[in-house]
Specification:
The chain has five helices and eight strands; from the N terminus they run ββαββααββαββα. It is of the alpha+beta class and 146 residues long. Strand 7 and strand 8 form a beta hairpin.
Length: 146
């Protein structure tokens, strides 16, 4: 498997570390990643995390924009100046710092959510609420096309 799929909730230990789910670590190992690039999601209280391919997706979009537009400048700020790097320790754990906590509201558990080429970290109750919203939107869209 080379994509981040499924979801899991893991507890943060007394030292502020959390184990990345084993399935996600397998993907990271397969990709040769010991370091994660992370961004605070723009429209949700989640952290997007992955390899440099996550940054490259933003940069491909940025390369198509006029560099003199405010939107281009904003995107450059977002993906180049407002991201963070995380190293996994030898046991596959990462330290849950303020970059994560302040944006997500995470306290003692993290929900890891597979998103294909990257994954997200959520506060578990906020993830459940967002999950319900997504399902409701999908049901409404399905009913609208029926």
């Amino acid at each position: 498997m080379d994509r981040f799929l499924s979801n899991a909730v893991n507890k943060i230990d007394a030292k502020g570390r959390v184990s990345v789910p084993a399935l996600f670590r397998t993907v990271l190992q397969k990709r040769g990643l010991g370091e994660l690039y992370a961004l605070q999601a723009i429209d949700m209280e989640a952290i997007d995390a992955g390899g440099m391919d996550l940054l490259e997706r933003y940069e491909e979009r940025l390369a198509q924009d006029d560099p003199f537009l405010r939107s281009s400048d904003d995107m450059s700020f977002f993906c180049h100046g407002d991201g963070a790097f995380f190293k996994l320790d030898s046991d596959g754990r990462l330290t849950v710092n303020d970059f994560i906590r302040e944006h997500t509201g995470i306290t003692n558990e993290i929900a890891f959510i597979g998103r294909g080429h990257f994954f997200q970290m959520w506060e578990p109750k906020r993830f459940q609420a967002y999950r319900e919203d997504v399902r409701a939107r999908l049901r409404a869209a399905r009913e609208a096309t029926a």
